Amino acid sequence: MSNPSQIEKMSLKDDQVNEEEEDIVNPWEVSTHSAKGVDYDKLIRKFGSTRIDHALIKRIENLTGRPVHHLLRRGIFFSQRDLEMILNVYEQKKPFYLYTGRGPSSEAMHMGHLIPFIFTKWLQDTFDVPLVIQLTDDEKFLWKDLTLEQTNHLAFENAKDIIACGFDVEKTFIFSDLDFLTNSPAFYRTICRIQKLVTYNQVKGIFGFTDSDSIGKISFPAVQAAPSFSCMFPEIFNGRSDIPCLIPCAIDQDPYFRMTRDVAPRMGCLKPALVHSTFFPALQGAQSKMSASDPNSSIFVTDTDQEIKDKINKYAFSGGGATVEEHKTKGGNCEVDVSYQYLTFFMEDDQRLEEIRMAYTSGELMTGSLKKELIDILQKMVGEHRQRREAVTDEIVRQFMKPRKLKYDYPAL
Ligand code: TRP
Known about the structure:
Blueprint: H1 14-17, E1 24-26, E2 29-31, H2 40-47, E3 50-51, H3 54-64, H4 70-73, E4 77-81, H5 83-91, E5 97-102, H6 111-127, E6 131-135, H7 137-143, H8 148-163, E7 172-176, H9 177-180, H10 185-195, H11 200-207, H12 215-219, H13 221-225, H14 234-237, E8 245-250, H15 254-267, E9 273-277, H16 305-315, H17 324-330, H18 338-346, H19 350-362, H20 367-390, H21 394-401
Parallel strand pairs: 5-6, 5-8, 6-7, 8-9
Antiparallel strand pairs: 1-2, 3-4, 4-9
Helix pairs in contact: 3-5, 7-8, 16-20, 18-20
The structure holds tryptophan.
Tryptophan (TRP) binds next to strand 5 and strand 8.
């Protein structure tokens, strides 16, 4: 390897060769032929990240003095880069910050979209650190058949659902790329410094761009990379460029941050650390795609109690037996059962979840009763979300989006 920038790189074209068997995972496409979903061990090897093991979880619990979030405990946030570095920083009582985001391509957000935000909220509460949230309305304009006005409006509406996850306005800055770029010199300067260090050949390799992709798409990765560097937010970090960043995201976003980590040392900046999650399955099963345009592929945060009940009963792929007799003798398969999978995301009580798993696997618990457990939890969660979302006024969104200093003090260097 002649140059250090080759280290964290892989070509997306390589995994498109064996389209029949290989999982495809990139920011624009996730697909697999297995009912159990993507092979995450293989993905970790291919991407070169590290699995979050029991020892690391124990270390987090020892450092923070509380049990970790169930999404971490159950291996839904399962992979990381440099998380130990962040824990060392925290142990030394030094600051770090969180960065996550969303591409606003539709008004309708589903429960899967909330997973990274639910987890980020837990990280913010547990470590008491500032958080920046990027809404990539520019990205969705470039990739989708939407106008700038539409994606910018969607960013504003999606911000309400994000805020409804419970973020603290004193510690959280939410920005739309289209809006923030026009009044932040540091944002565009950080983008330029990144752009200068990445060649067309490299983004072709990382993202699979071709000669017919617009130059907007080709240069966009620098926009998503920029918030990983604290120098992009001089108001928040008092001009310091040495505050480490931790990015919670679904693993399909990793290509952006492999590129970011590659350029960081050459910019004299720190590489951002990452925690990656698995994907939230569609109701029809882990190999079919969830889509915001198919209302039956997932549970949306706007669904009524009746819609939740009907969708789960009608569409949630079942790992149960075909008949009552078969189920009672052979038992259910939790590995492919979508209702069980959803419970692992949303049921907080470990003991109850384990009871359900055992009873379903043995055939004692029927699919209808399993679904009922999930319906109750989702109706409650979505109902509470709806109430919190209704309380988020335009004025509250504007407060979160106002460029400002957050609650934390950073002594100048
Ligand atoms: N590209 C992401 C999406 O389409 C949005 C995003 C921007 C993001 N910055 C991020 C996601 C940082 C996770 C972490 O959803």
